[in-house]
Amino acid sequence: MSRPATNTDLIKSEATRLGFLSCGISKAGFLEEEAPRLEKWLNDNMQGEMSYMENHFDKRLDPTLLVPGAKSVVSLLLNYFPKQTQREDSYKISKYAYGTDYHFVIKDKLKQLLNFIREEIGDVHGRAFVDSAPVLDKAWAAKSGLGWMGKHSNLLTKQLGSFYFIAELIIDLDLEYDTPVTDHCGSCTACIDACPTQAIVEPYVVDGSKCISYFTIELKNEIPSKFSGKFDDWMFGCDVCQDVCPWNRFSRAHREPLFDPNPELLQLSKGDWEEITEEVFMRLFKNSAVKRTGFKGLKRNISFLKD
């Protein structure tokens, strides 16, 4: 077995031991197919007020600009599908935000993986990325054979659907590279038909400025009144396009204790949320991604749902 093949097996085995669903590897280089798509998406102002999406255009498309000498992009998936969900008569939080902020959980696992690579293989340089730098996570995961891009623009796998996080290590090590899988969306339009704000403007294209997740998390100003009554009770994020996807009938509960929610969170009714205090908010979401919107942001979202 060649050295790259041996190293690849080592890395994938350790990724499994650390609890990742799967690991795929691509050759680091310019994402030619993504460049015109990203440019058009930005030119059509689909980023809304997410101005950070306009920054570092070249770095988003070329990992060698983020990590000098980069040779491989190691893409990893981590399941977050919960064992239980919120009660029926509640304002809804996206499932990914039930437990501890995924940035902390995954960054720790990536550091362990990078340390393992250095201990077992040698002087390897690289960086870990978790949705906080200009890296096109889904494009690299698809290129690495971990799934295909669904019509809702989320990565999909036949085995597990789409309820998982995507992260990367970009390293200066030659490895064996995986190949993309084929698209299995077929003629299905479930996600497009179900989107409450019609944010999926065409198959595989989501207008970020119309997405409920954008309004409830990213938007700092008032939510436009024309979307009143269209949020389907989502107060932080939105899972509609994933919930209706036929492939997500294969989702299974995660095994990461840090992603388990505070039991109190699952029991709160709409009335409880409407009366929530800042003290309760801080207790419930101490290390949660929900802190991204903040107490005032969550109250704004709840008020919008009530109106």
Report on this structure.
By secondary structure, this protein is of the alpha+beta class. The protein has one domain (1-307). 33% of the residues lie in helices and 13% in strands. The protein has helices at 3-17, 34-43, 57-61, 102-120, 137-143, 190-194, 212-218, 240-243, 263-267, 270-274, 278-284, 294-306, and strands at residues 22-27, 72-79, 92-93, 126-129, 148-149, 155-156, 164-171, 200-202, 205-206, 234-236. It has a 4-stranded antiparallel β-sheet, with helices on both faces. A two-stranded parallel ribbon has the order 3-10. A two-stranded antiparallel ribbon has the order 5-6. A hairpin with a 2-residue loop joins strand 8 and strand 9 (205-206). Helix 1 runs antiparallel to helix 4. It starts with a helix and ends with a helix.
Question: What's the helix and strand layout?
Answer:
Layout: H1 3-17, E1 22-27, H2 34-43, H3 57-61, E2 72-79, E3 92-93, H4 102-120, E4 126-129, H5 137-143, E5 148-149, E6 155-156, E7 164-171, H6 190-194, E8 200-202, E9 205-206, H7 212-218, E10 234-236, H8 240-243, H9 263-267, H10 270-274, H11 278-284, H12 294-306
Parallel strand pairs: 3-10
Antiparallel strand pairs: 1-2, 2-7, 4-7, 5-6, 8-9
Helix pairs in contact: 1-4
GO molecular function, one term: cobalamin binding
Protein name: Epoxyqueuosine reductase
EC number: 1.17.99.6
Short synopsis of the structure:
[4Fe-4S] cluster 1 binds at residues 185, 188, 191, 245. TRNA binds at residues 220, 296. Helix content is 33%, strand content 13%.
